[in-house]
Amino acid sequence: MKILVTGGLGFIGSHTVVELQKEGFEVVVVDNLSNASIKVLDGIEKITGRKPHFEKLDLKEKNHLEDFFKKNQDIQGVIHFAASKAVGESVEKPLMYYENNINTLVYMLKEVSELESANFIFSSSCSVYGQADELPISENAPIKAAESPYGNTKQIGEEIISDTCKVEPSFNAIALRYFNPIGAHQTAEIGELPIGVPQNLVPFITQTGARIREELSVFGGIYPTPDGTCIRDYIHVVDLAKAHVVALQRLLKNKNESNYETFNLGTGKGSSVLEVIQSFERVSGQKLNYKIVEKREGDVISAYADSTKANKVLGWKAESTLDDAMLSAWKWQQQL
């Protein structure tokens, strides 16, 4: 079966391509390389023994996207990762985020809905919940006003997909709301590869550990948490990638209970920023240079998952620990 992965050279996308190829799928990757490297293809090939078909494509270019689908009518499923993803950057550049994340989703859905096999996995986020009233967060938690334009694009994206499913009974979609993916493949052939200054915590930690960055800024220190820093549910990227394959197979085998479903993907355990730093120090054997600074706009205080639904319905569960993920991230950084 031919599967399209948009943003397939990105962090989560590349790990998902590896897991898809392990399961025997024929994978087509499209990516505009705005936040990814073409060298990731080599890493995928080293791990799996074969290189996926790749096309450089910017999904904002609607005509080019239409041409792509005309040539690939045999696509059986789509996993849609392509999007801008940094909370802080979205606060500074909201229009860029709405164009990149919303316009392109609409263009994709128009094309996918016309395929004979319209199966769509959406890369969503726990940010759709905002600051939840209860922890852990289940799929029944209310969708609150987003804390950032990034979070808002995921909320709007889910609404667009849900509306599409209502009027297109043959269109099947699953939105995977994941928490904080970290780590790298155990081979250290692929991992998180931010271009420029990292927007996410763990690559900034590993770059600081590698002396590429002088110092890590920890935002806050004044939050109502045990150590004053934000709490997140950090999930190993390989565990997350495997969940995408399981969700896709659910649609391909017609096991979905409705044509639009949502699942949380997390470990069920919250870790503070300082606990993540301590984990890095344990696995690397070195002290990290960091300081506490003012809080960052758009950040929620605490978010960790109730993954019961994914565990029971999908038959998926996160297996790796925080230390496992931090060690893999550190090995990836050292390889770089």
Shape: globular
CATH homologous superfamily label of the largest domain: NAD(P)-binding Rossmann-like Domain
Instruction: Characterize the main sheet.
Output: 7 strands, parallel
The total count of helices amounts to 11
Which series of helices and strands comes N to C?
EHEHEHEHHEHEEHEEEHEEHEEHH
Radius of gyration: 19 Å
CATH topological fold name of the largest domain: Rossmann fold
The amount of helix comes to 25-40%
- Helix and strand content put the structural class at alpha/beta
CATH architectural category of the largest domain: 3-Layer(aba) Sandwich
Tell me, rounded to a whole number, the average pLDDT. Answer: 96
Got a strand count? Answer: 14
Q: Which CATH class of the largest domain?
A: Alpha Beta
Write the layout of secondary structure elements.
Blueprint: E1 2-6, H1 11-22, E2 26-31, H2 40-48, E3 53-56, H3 62-71, E4 75-80, H4 87-92, H5 94-112, E5 119-125, H6 149-167, E6 172-178, E7 180-182, H7 201-209, E8 216-219, E9 231-232, E10 234-236, H8 237-252, E11 260-265, E12 271-272, H9 273-284, E13 290-293, E14 302-303, H10 308-314, H11 322-335
Parallel strand pairs: 1-2, 1-4, 2-3, 4-5, 5-6, 6-11, 7-10, 8-13, 9-14
Antiparallel strand pairs: 9-12
Helix pairs in contact: 1-2, 1-8, 3-5, 5-6, 7-9, 7-11, 9-11
